[in-house]
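Lecture notes, unit on protein representations.

Consider one protein chain, 330 amino acids long.
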Amino acid sequence: EIHYFELAQSFAKFSPIPNVANLGFPLFLAPIIYFTGANSPVDIAKIVFIIQAFLFFSFAIILVALISFEILKSRKLALGAATLFTVYPYILFSILKLANFPRVIPAFHYQMWINIGADYLSAILLYFGFYLFIKKFNDNKLSFLSAAAIGALLSAVALTRVANILYLPLIFLVLIWLKKYRESIGFGAAAFLVYLPQWVYNFYFFGSPFTYGYRIQELSGHGLETKIIGGWFSINNVYIFFEKIWLNLPTLVWIFPILVIILILGFWRLFKEKKHLAMILGFWALLNIGFYIFFVDAQSQLRYFIPSIPPLLILLLAGIIKIYEFRRFL
């Protein structure tokens, strides 16, 4: 919280400082700090709580319903996905409580969108960006301007969380796959222009457009700024990630393969009907999860996986439907 606030406060004073945070969330906080005269995160906590827990979370529920309807074409299933999205924090809380997870309360709070953090702005923008893309795709209305608007929106998402930059080449490649070459140019140009301030900031303070504050020893304590890729990711982190699950939530180790099978069945069902949308859903979930499993700073941070919740819920519902369809073979 303090890093976001410090950078946002520097923007509010029109005197930016070097910081570990990406620009997106501090830019969101800067007007709030400017007009309230806040001097610490506590001073803006109530305002940010109202915006995130009520406005953002409510809008997220609506977007989950709309995305689910566009993919599953069922109002009942869309309502089911929105309901699952609304109650999953309580389901997660119950599971963690039964497992005596030591950080159950913070984990629950993170899933309720009530903490000051970039995760929720990132998620709401990402959900909206994917909804616009899927909606335009289904309606066959992917124009140059709509692709540019989606590119600008998803690039704003990347400004809030560095992992989200992976979604830009995903959508760009999907547009190429669809032979929407003109639209891919509009998407790429808009995305570049929106993300350009982050690269300018990086170059000004850290000497390279591709060096982020996360990797600067004086700011983050990691001291890996000379390693563009190696300093961000570690194969050993995958082992650490699953080891922590085994130590803290051993029951989930047995539930996890079942969930994976259901998700694969859901992907299979959607792929046979809408292969483009199935691929988008699959990569939407996997890119974020994969990044934070390998990312050196992400261990045990369940909030980092919030962007992947909608595609996982949709694939889960599709998988359950697929299992139900198997009943005729029994």
